[in-house]
Design goal:
The complex is a heterodimer of chains A (291) and B (183). Chain A has 291 residues and is mostly helical. Helices cover 62% and strands 2% of the residues of chain A. The chains are: A mainly alpha (291), B mainly alpha (183). Chains A and B meet through α3, α4, α5, α7 and α8 of A and α1, α2, α3, α5 and α6 of B.
Chain lengths: 291, 183
């Protein structure tokens, strides 16, 4: 089995931004955008997410798999729950409202009375801006952040050395564990183990995984004992750890960090002091459905 | 077997947590094709037993890190992005069994397996419950959506995997510990 990271250097603006600044911006964005349903603020957040995404210079071919997952999520949340059933709008959109088709409409000769309101339709647009905005930021991470940077990044962000080293170490274990998985799978297949076409219910499918899962897990545990001993012998954890991957802030990283802080503080103030948190429908949206 | 503090996080725990996270990621990535019968996109995800087992065997810190970092790595490998609340939920799926680890001395004893099965139910309920509830905050979804579309598919597959596979791993681990003299 081939396990590869999706990251590659693209010489993009995103490649020049320090990973710490990127994480700070991403989390500031997440905590800002989830505070509000205000159309103006959501529009601004969505626009900034689009700009951010464009800095990564990723291609559709690369990110297709991630977008498929997000499309399924958006479809079930927005199309099914908000537009078709109306359930997804509960708690945010007030009861009642103006119907999009007050007289109903005819479909294949049938009269359809569908209670979709203008407010619910705007809520679907708001949900799309919010979820897609968050997705645009976070889907970019595997494609644009060097896997060697994670341990050093979180250590410099204040995570204890031992925890940061767990991240570093787990990245290193992945290729060897993928190889062990292939070897175990081949060995079990030689004993007529069938994984590709397991028939039957869920319990049967789960049970059939055991011949692969158990030897792989036990081998991994046994080998990790030796690694732990080797690390102890080299004095692991006795002093502050240094990192091979070096990080350095540039002026634009500081601009991004200050912008992230202002974005979070500004949104909180606008929501708490100026009432820009609750759901609202812009007037121009109503005018699209008048007459 | 001598029992130690469940919150210890020394060199062994660092390595176990790292190997658990990597194992969870690789297995999730490799077994993504196993779909639940009758559903469009819900994978069976047998790898979820890894954080549960590492929690039971090595304590709550190792269990939590295995689930939390393992899920991040699996999403990085698959190209799905970064979903903090679901990562946290997977961490809790490993953390709760870890809280039961103090009660488990003999990994193949019936009572130990019962405790472990109970921890699977609690851990999956809390972990997937928190992750699913985050969708109310992040996406503005209502409780029905949270329950039916987010919580139940994840919770049911997690407990099915845990209840079937965790006892098998525990019995195998008991033999490994006995044979190798490690504990």
């Amino acid at each position: 089995m081939l396990v590869t990271w999706n990251y590659r250097y693209r010489n993009s603006p995103m490649d020049r931004i320090d990973p710490r600044a990127r994480w700070i911006f991403s989390f500031a964005f997440l905590f800002s955008v989830t505070q509000t349903w205000n159309p103006l603020l959501l529009g601004l957040f969505f626009a900034s997410a689009l700009v951010w995404y464009s800095l990564g210079r990723t291609t559709w071919k690369e990110t297709r798999r991630g977008w498929m997952l997000i499309s399924i999520m958006l479809f079930s949340m927005i199309i099914v729950n908000t537009i078709i059933t109306g359930g997804g709008a509960g708690g945010v959109v007030p009861e009642g409202g103006r119907l999009v088709w007050p007289e109903g409409f005819r479909l294949f000769g049938w009269q359809v009375n569908y209670g979709l309101t203008v407010e619910r339709l705007w809520f679907a647009v708001s949900q799309l801006m919010r979820i897609l905005g968050i997705s645009l930021l976070f889907i970019l991470i595997p494609y644009t952040m060097d896997s060697r940077a994670y341990g050093a990044t979180f250590s410099k962000l204040g995570l204890p050395d031992r925890l940061a080293y767990v991240i570093e170490l787990s990245f290193r274990f992945i290729p060897s564990l993928a190889r062990s998985l292939s070897i175990t799978l081949d060995a079990q297949r030689a004993r007529a183990f069938e994984l590709d076409q397991i028939k039957g219910g869920i319990v049967k499918k789960i049970g059939r995984i055991a011949p692969l899962l158990i030897p792989l897990t036990m081998n991994a545990i046994l080998s990790s004992e030796d690694i732990a001993n080797a690390m102890d012998l080299r004095g692991f954890g006795q002093r502050k750890r240094t990192w091979l991957y070096q990080l350095s802030y540039h002026w634009w990283d500081w601009v991004l960090i200050v912008f992230s802080a202002l974005m979070l503080i500004g949104t909180t103030v606008l929501v708490q002091r100026f009432g820009m948190g609750p759901f609202a429908v812009p007037d121009w949206w109503y005018s699209l459905f008048s007459g | 077997m001598e029992k130690k503090s469940i919150w210890k996080f020394g060199t062994r725990e660092v390595v176990f947590a790292a190997i658990g996270a990597a194992l969870y990621a690789v297995l999730t990535y490799a077994l993504n094709f196993l779909q639940m019968p009758g559903t469009g996109n819900v994978t069976i995800r047998p790898a979820i037993v890894i954080p549960m087992f590492f929690g039971i065997a090595f304590g709550p810190v190792v269990g939590f890190i295995t689930g939390f970092i393992g899920n991040i790595l699996a999403d990085l490998l698959s190209g799905y992005g970064f979903w903090f609340w679901w990562d946290l939920g997977n961490g809790i799926v490993g953390l709760i069994p870890g809280l039961f680890s103090a009660m488990i001395v003999d990994f193949k004893a019936g009572k130990s397996i019962l405790w472990a099965e109970l921890s699977v139910l609690l851990g999956s309920g809390l972990g997937m419950g928190l992750a699913a509830l985050s969708e109310r905050w992040v996406s503005g979804a209502d409780m029905n959506t949270v329950l039916l579309a987010n919580f139940l598919p994840a919770f049911l597959t997690d407990i099915a995997n845990g209840l079937v596979l965790l006892p098998l791993l525990m019995v195998a681990f008991a033999s490994v510990v006995h044979r190798s003299g490690r504990g």
